[in-house]
Write a structure and sequence with these properties.
The chain is of the alpha+beta class. The protein is 24% helix and 23% strand. The longest helix has 14 residues. It is globular, with a radius of gyration of 17 Å. The N terminus is likely disordered.
């Protein structure tokens, strides 16, 4: 998920780890396409801001940084959830299972902050229960909900491609569960099998 305002690139080419040429090319293509990404059900959208209202949020949300609980994932078939997403849906079963084995399920309560704007990104997330608001704060302090994540929605993936900080904040609107997928095994898979990035370009 990206904000509509330009964000300066972090670091220099010398600071970044070496990446194969195919990976770099696919990365640039993915960034261009992902900025225009919209989910099939229309709940995600780029470049549109909805003022936060009492309909979306029953009361102003205090900023909290309470640690979310990490729970075993036996009750959720993580590989099956990954396979239902556009990003991972075309992976071979063993590749999907490898990413699932590195993932954890987190439980959140209302107002828990999953990540804050400008945080360095290390994970992407898939909602399995509840609702997560993606919130942007304007220069005058007003907050806007720019997307609402519900079960089956994947978010936070842009850090895979741009190495930039989070462009918005993610906050639970109610008791929720998310699968937290680390970037490292995903990037390792893309480097090992560049063809797996074809789904990224089509997103």
């Amino acid at each position: 998920l990206r904000s509509t305002k330009a964000r300066p690139a972090t670091g220099t080419d010398h600071d970044r780890p070496h990446q194969p040429a195919a990976f770099r090319v696919a990365t640039h293509i993915a960034v261009a396409f992902a900025t225009a990404f919209t989910a099939r059900d229309g709940r995600r959208f780029a470049g549109q801001f909805c003022p936060m209202s009492d309909t979306a949020l029953a009361s102003p949300i205090p900023r909290q940084t309470r640690r979310m609980g990490e729970i075993p994932g036996e009750h959720v078939n993580t590989a099956s959830v990954l396979a239902e997403t556009e990003l991972f849906g075309e992976l071979e079963a063993e590749d999907c299972q490898g990413i699932a084995d590195s993932s954890v399920t987190r439980t959140l309560h209302r107002n828990d902050v999953l990540f804050q704007e400008d945080d360095h990104a290390h994970h992407l997330f898939i909602v399995t229960q509840g609702r997560i608001a993606i919130v942007n704060r304007s220069f005058d302090g007003r907050e806007s909900v720019i997307a609402l994540m519900e079960p089956g929605d994947l978010f936070g993936e842009m850090g895979l491609f741009d190495n930039a900080g989070r462009s918005a904040e993610a906050r639970a609107l109610e008791t929720s569960e998310v699968i937290e997928v680390p970037f490292e095994p995903v990037l390792a898979l893309y480097e090992r099998k560049p063809s797996c990035m074809s789904s990224v370009v089509r997103m």
